[in-house]
Structures
1.
Amino acid sequence: MSNKVITIERHIIEEERASQGATGDFSALLRDLMLAVKIIHREVIRAGLVDILGATHRENIQGEVVQKLDEFANDVIFRAMDHGGHLCAMASEENEGLLAIPEEYPKGKYILLFDPLDGSSNIDANVSIGTIFSIHRRVTAEETDGTVEDALQPGYKQIAAGYTIYGPSTMLVYTAGRGVYGFTLDPSVGEFLLSHDNIRIPEHNGIYSVNEGNYMKWSPEMRKYIDWVKQDIPEEQKKSYSLRYIGSMVADIHRTLLYGGVFLYPADVKSKKGKLRLLYEANPMSFIVEQAGGRATDGLGNRLLEIMPTELHQRVPLVVGSPKNVEEVESFLQGKRAV
């Protein structure tokens, strides 16, 4: 790291200057989004002191009980982003359809897709949670209302993606297609400061992250992989593996990004198409991991960022992490290898 103090706004502006034809709209959009995550951070750290813990009395489109803090985060992001003139529409994991920009505000050239609070089932246990976002350039006519067509784009067309993790410190990790950068919130000055410059995921590490409680629901091939990583094999043949699973996707992938290894959420007999959402979780996280030198696939060799979405709440299986770890998983899931 240099000895310069670099805020995320300064970093975004410098990145935009390096792009031909930059107008400043993108940096202004991210500035509005940073305000939203700072407000969410403020409520997360106060969650045990105010009446914002616990569940509401409604379910989201996924059939999951909505947590109070989840609902708060969803509302904050929408209200921070609806009036800036940078977006044509938004879509959230918590809402069934597209979120339209109010009629009185101008319509911009980008669309924002987001998971307001990933890992919300862990809120009451004070486990790390996060916000995930994905930004696309719209494909419909400018200055008009956005449509579902703007949201249903393959992940490789993202112009930016990122996540905020609310843990011992609040950290924001993002990419605009030119590397991955991490910024840690300094509460004393209220700014995200560059703390992790040009993050690169290790080629391999003996860490796997998966909910083994689903073992009996998985395919025989997936179970064979898990059996293999748990075998006591001489070190010259295979590195020993450790299971690390938090149960909050943002936290698990954040650790994988920094330390290496693999995070898995495979399909099973209950969720035959997978459980994670392509637009709000898999695509932005895959974009980040790929930009850091990793891989993200469905386990069968299909790159997640090349999947053409057909619906807003489409689900996919996910294998993401260090290149050699992902290759190991695929060798089992594709039937090329047995224990």
2.
Amino acid sequence: MPKSHLKQNLLGFLRKQPDADARRASVENDLINAESALGRTLFGDVAPGHQREFFMHKKNVWIWHEDGMTIRYEVRSNGVFKKVNDSGYRKVTGEELAHFRAAASAYLKLVKSRIYE
């Protein structure tokens, strides 16, 4: 079952339960944390005292956070755009786009095989 379907089915089931909003938020947070724990491993070891996160926040939105810098990638019909901290969006091209695509692909394969399989 594709990741998005499994996640939707799980969250849909939780909506029907008592205290559904709190449970859904808790499960969604746990899934993002588990995915991020795997995502941070894609780029090598994290030095002691440093922080790194890489995960798919929601459909077509990816987050990279490392040592106080947050990059938000949005995949749109006309390209991939990124926003660093509070700056404006700019289109990602060339080698940077190739690196983003490779990282996103590796991430999806990793979380599918370790969390959703």
3.
Amino acid sequence: MLLIGIGEEFEERSYLKAQPEYERGLAYLEKAERFDLLPLLAEGILNGRGRAVRALRELYGMVADKNYFIISTCQTDVLLRAGFPENRVAMPCGTLKKKQCACGCEQSLTEVGEVELAALYHDILAENPDLGALGTCPYCHGKMALNNIFVEKYLESGYREDWGRYTKWLQGTLNRSVCILELGVGLDYPSVIRFPFEKMGFYNQKAFFIRINERLHYLTKELNGRGKSMAKNSIDLLLGGVIL
């Protein structure tokens, strides 16, 4: 069984910061206090130009026939565009697939259409002051926002079903050999992947832990002898033809 964590390296932040349209869009969204739209801005700029999707397609080719599950802190569609099926992925920090009332109305959670996302991305680049393509909440008539961790009243119910599949999958790892593969996971959200994965690797004596990160690659002493780390960017590694 293979448990995979996908982290910040797959957001390609260095590439984004080098793009003038991203810097302009970032400044505009910060001024408008619409931080929930940052993943959409990143998705639009990276689509067709970034390397993360190509790297993850390589990963998918390696694990497609294995019993795996993926936890990701990314909030873009990078895993889905790489071919991973939704029933094998949980994204607890949010996605571009759902929207919610910014005020936190629980019943407001719903799917986002591609037309809405395209219009919203255009409005960001055009610095449209309205940014109202997601519509208004049918319950409190407040603004709708993308369902992600940047929303002050983030509705975690957006990923609850996926998380349920994950916990059920985890139950099947008891007394089983498990490879825990952590790719590009930093310390932005350590309670989502990094700390839980370390705990799992410690308690499951049949687990082997692999941590790959350009800067934060060190393993805890508790995993000594049952893990391996590598100081390398995960995207570079996958595009270099590494075989799991």
4.
Amino acid sequence: MALTPRFTRTAAIVAVGAVSAFGLAACSSGDTGGDASGEPITIEYVHRLPDGDGMTKVSDIVKRWNDDHPDIQVKATKFDGKSSDMILKLETDIKAGNGPCLAQTGYSEVPQLYVKGLLQDVASEAKKYEDKFSAGAFSGMKVGDAIVGLPQDTGPLVYFYNETAFAALGLEAPKTLDDLTADSATAAAAGKYVTAFTPDEALNWLAGQSAAAGDTWFSTSGDKWKVDAEGEGSQRVAAFWQGLLDNKQTLATERWGEGFTAALNDGSLIGHVGAAWEAGFLLDSLDGTPAEGQWRVAQLPDFGAGALSGPDGGSGVSVMKGCKNPAEAMEFNAWLNTQVDDLASQGLVVAAKGSVKTPEKMLRQFGGQDVLAELATATENLNPDFPYAPGFSTLSTMNETAAAAVAGTAKVADIFTTAQETAVASLKDLGLPVAE
């Protein structure tokens, strides 16, 4: 996925804003000479990978590196908590001078972390490894001319469905939004749901659907940011979900609450618009039940813009401000993120090039389907013109409006209005120019 002129220009404004508002132009990449005492260099790496049963443990991956690199030892720490909580801890630790050298960061978080001075520009090191990764994923670690680390995984939206339950209703995997609307009515008449509307995931989930519908939320007008979260694509997405909510043809429940898993387990939820990375754990609760092996993954139905998906998550490993050995950190970073089969076992849709073997667990849970091949196609179908802006995380206010839409005190369209208003306010708060 090549960088578009719009993305390049947008990213450049991030860099300009960072320099002018926060004085980051002289941010150095630290000492690359190693430990002069002759002692091994220690690189601290913080991650949020699931490390679940049947997965190659991060500690085992890192041990292989440490065994082969006695002069560059890596200490891996798993952060158990939300991404937003991890970012707050990183900011606190970095300001106190004891932050890690490497940390997992979402692509949507990178621009603001750079603007806030929490990431190092390691472009000279990163370019050594650029050809190992897909262009689209690599661009997620760029902020203007700065490159802050290396990509690890992508998160295109896809469609998960219970093939057996669909067949019983005379349904096939939906190809278009009209198909999904019709399937929703058929399933609801049988007491089942082919989608779940998940307000706690509204931020990334609905933004990704807007991208799949062909929208671009952040672009530029002259030397200013331009925000358009209420475009034609967002309107199509809003109308679709509003219809399902009004007709009670979607399961309205939090994605990370008990209701979602309960509906999955009792067979009432038989379809789900979700991120590709969910394939690694979505069906865990069905292991050993009659539903094991019944589910499949398909491309996201056409939201009106053709064979297009949108990003819902995905992350890289960034070099944090204060890292004293960025060259060595990036050497490990490149090695780690090209251990494709190990990372795939964690449920990741890896950003590194090359074929990846679908793990045994996925083969079993998805009835022998080559899941990772299907997810790789979704990655190729990502909207290439959907960059993020600094302050994107503040759009979590969308989740509150989404909850109100479920309660009937707001409309789904109001969620995108919330995104528009919050994005403009956030950019202004960061001292960045906005076209209105």
